[in-house]
Amino acid sequence: MNCLELAIPPLPQLVTIGHAFWPPGQKHETRSFDVYDMLFVLKGTLYMTEEGIPYEIKEGSMLVLEPGRRHAGHRPCEEITEIYWIHFVHPAPVRTMDSGKIPWSFPYVKGTNLDTAPQQQVMYIPKFTSLHIPDVLPFLERMVELHQALSPASSLPLQTQLAGLLVQLQAAAKMQYASRARQLCDQTIAYLQQHLTRPFDARHMEQTLHFRFDYLARCLKTYTGMSPLQYLHDLQIKKAKSLLENMELSVSEVGRQVGIENDNYFIRLFRKQTGVTPGRYRQIRNGKA
DNA sequence: CGGTTAAGCAACGGTCCCTA
DNA sequence: TAGGGACCGTTGCTTAACCG
C-alpha cells in the first residue's frame, strides 16, 4: 500500500470537514486546489479520478487527494453514498512510499535543551486504503460536532482531533500491511528499548517475545542492518551522547546510566561508535575543543 | 591525587557458514 | 530448521600513562 510521507513540523491544519449523503446520480466536480482532500466512504461507492488515475472508493475505504493535482468524479454514484470529507493544508508530500519499506522504527535524534528548533520528522498516511471504520468514526463525528460550533474553545480541540485521526491512519498503515518479520523486528526494537539498561540476555528476549533468538536477530537485521547487540549499543551510545551533552555526570556515571558498568568497555564502545572518546565528545559538543 | 584513557590478556558467548 | 565448528567481538580484570 502506498503512503504519503509528510514532513512535520508543522502539523497539518484543518480547513474544513463535512458529512453528506450523496443521492444516486451525483458526481464530484472537476477541480484542482491547494489543499489535501481526504474522502471517507461509509456507505456506497464514490468514483474519483486524480491526474488520470481512477479510484473506486468503496464502503469502508478512504482516499487522499493531493494539493495541486487535478481531480474529478469520473462516474456518478449509483446508490445513496455516505461520505465524510476533510480539507487540510500542509506542504506537498515529500514522496510516496510503500508501507512495507517505511523504516517505522528508525530512531530520531531527540531535541536537547540546547536546540532552538524542533528536529525535522515525518509522518505517513495511506493514499488509498480500506479501513476499520469504528476506529476512525469517533474522530470524524467529533470533528463535525466541533466544526459546527466553532469557537475559541473548540478550535484547538478540533485541530487535535485531526492529529488523532492521522495517528489512527498511520497506525492502520503500519499494522495492516507490515509482514510478520517486520512486526517482529519492531517488537525486538521495543524490547531493546525497554531493557536498555539491563545486561543483554538473549534467552530472556526469546522468552519474552516467544520466538527463537536466531529468528528475531534475523528479522531485526533485515530491516535495520544491525544485530540485537549492535542495535542495543546504538541506543546506549545515543543516550550516552545526550547525557554527556546535557548532564554534569562523570564518564563512568554516564556509562552506568546507559547500562554499561565497566568504564573501560564503555569508553572503547563509545569510541568505536563515534570515533572519539566520551570526554572528547563532551568537549567538542560544549565548544571547548 | 583523582579522573580519564589506553592497552594487553583470557574467558565467554555471539555470528557466520556449512552440512544434514 | 537444527547442529557443529571456526572466527571474532564482548567483557572483566589489570596495569600504566596522561592531565589538570
Automatic annotation (TrEMBL):
Source lineage: Bacteria, Bacillati, Bacillota, Bacilli, Bacillales
Protein name stated in the entry: AraC family transcriptional regulator
Pfam families, alphabetized: AraC_binding, HTH_18
Keywords of the record: DNA-binding, Transcription, Transcription regulation
Organism: Paenibacillus graminis
Top-level taxon of origin: Bacteria
Record domain HTH araC/xylS-type: where: 186-284
Any one Gene Ontology molecular-function term assigned to this protein's record: sequence-specific DNA binding
